[in-house]
Automatic annotation (TrEMBL):
<dbReference type="InterPro" id="IPR036691">
    <property type="entry name" value="Endo/exonu/phosph_ase_sf"/>
</dbReference>
<dbReference type="InterPro" id="IPR005135">
    <property type="entry name" value="Endo/exonuclease/phosphatase"/>
</dbReference>
<dbReference type="InterPro" id="IPR004808">
    <property type="entry name" value="AP_endonuc_1"/>
</dbReference>
<feature type="domain" description="Endonuclease/exonuclease/phosphatase">
    <location>
        <begin position="13"/>
        <end position="257"/>
    </location>
</feature>
<dbReference type="GO" id="GO:0008311">
    <property type="term" value="F:double-stranded DNA 3'-5' DNA exonuclease activity"/>
</dbReference>
<dbReference type="Pfam" id="PF03372">
    <property type="entry name" value="Exo_endo_phos"/>
</dbReference>
<feature type="region of interest" description="Disordered">
    <location>
        <begin position="272"/>
        <end position="292"/>
    </location>
</feature>
<keyword id="KW-0479">Metal-binding</keyword>
<comment type="similarity">
    <text>Belongs to the DNA repair enzymes AP/ExoA family.</text>
</comment>
<keyword id="KW-0378">Hydrolase</keyword>
<dbReference type="InterPro" id="IPR020847">
    <property type="entry name" value="AP_endonuclease_F1_BS"/>
</dbReference>
<dbReference type="InterPro" id="IPR037493">
    <property type="entry name" value="ExoIII-like"/>
</dbReference>
<feature type="compositionally biased region" description="Basic residues">
    <location>
        <begin position="283"/>
        <end position="292"/>
    </location>
</feature>
<keyword id="KW-0460">Magnesium</keyword>
<protein>
    <submittedName>
        <fullName>Exodeoxyribonuclease III</fullName>
        <ecNumber>3.1.11.2</ecNumber>
    </submittedName>
</protein>
Length: 292
């Protein structure tokens, strides 16, 4: 459960829900218990019309989302305050119809919610698509990083950054999540200056965010770290803590991922500013100019 803090903070979280309709009770239970301020969801596996807007609004959250039949889908939730959508597709491939990227201005931050392609089986077209998508992300992230706005890249990156981020790499060596090309792309992204929040706060810990459904991996804590929250300079200095709500993975009917969160301090000028207009209505259609 979220511990009490003396100073004003914002908790930003990411959660691959692996089917929002099937796991809506799990999501609502987590929102009630942990009360994150901003949430990025991946793998909605639902159309726009099937997104559970009303249930999420009743939980106190406004939302923007982009869905897809049976696969993919991402959403950004905000406690009480309407997110303002910036873009719903990663630039660079206008014909890409996969619902994997959503960017919004929310509670003073620019939040990019992403579900990077898995890439299996590799080699092959799916792995080629993963690497091409990653290249587009790297190009777009460069502008977000240097925009001057507090920005975060948040989501399921489908990359295990190092062998320290997996329980045992031997049986995963051919998997797209561990390929040298995937890891090199992640390193190039970090080399722009982004901070890997979870690893920064837990440099020597075996921290996992995903446990598949096979071979008792959850019960044996045989996990992988593939869900990441990356922060640009405006947010790096505000990072207080980071963690994983592992209890969610142990609940009945759970996703194979657990939520990852970071706690960010709120600048004094923002704490003293007039309260923003709050709403828990349906998603906004408003757009703002891309800060990058």
């Amino acid at each position: 459960m979220r511990p009490a803090t003396s100073a004003k903070t914002v908790r930003l979280a990411t959660f691959n829900i692996n089917g929002i309709r099937a796991r809506l009770p799990n999501l609502l239970a987590w929102l009630q218990r942990e009360s994150p301020d901003i949430v990025c969801l991946q793998e909605l596996k639902a159309t726009d019309a099937a997104f559970p807007r009303q249930a999420i609004a009743e939980a106190g959250y406004a939302a923007v989302w982009v869905g897809q039949v049976s696969w993919n889908g991402v959403a950004i939730l905000s406690k009480g305050i309407e997110p303002v959508e910036i873009r719903r597709q990663l630039p660079g491939a206008p014909d890409d119809a996969q619902a994997r990227y959503l960017e919004a201005a929310v509670q003073g931050l620019i939040v990019a919610c992403l579900y990077l392609p898995n890439g299996n089986p590799q080699p092959g077209p799916k792995f080629d698509y993963k690497l091409a998508w990653f290249e587009r992300l790297i190009r777009h992230a460069k502008g977000l990083y240097s925009s001057g706005h507090p920005a975060a890249l948040v989501g399921d990156f489908n990359v295990v950054p190092t062998d320290f981020d997996i329980y045992d790499p031997k049986s995963w060596r051919r998997d797209a999540l561990l390929q040298p090309q995937s890891r090199a792309c992640y390193e190039r992204l970090l080399s722009q200056g982004w901070r890997d929040s979870l690893r920064h706060c837990h440099p020597d810990a075996r921290v996992y965010t995903f446990w598949d459904y096979f071979r008792q991996h959850w019960q044996r804590n045989a996990g992988l770290r593939i869900d990441h929250v990356l922060l640009n300079p405006s947010l790096k200095r505000r990072l207080k803590r980071a963690g994983v709500d592992t209890w969610v993975r142990g609940e009945p009917g759970a996703s194979d991922h657990a939520p990852v969160w970071v706690e960010l301090s709120v600048p004094a000028r923002a704490r003293n500013a007039p309260a923003a207009k709050k709403t828990a209505s349906s998603r906004s259609r408003k757009r703002v100019t891309n800060p990058s």
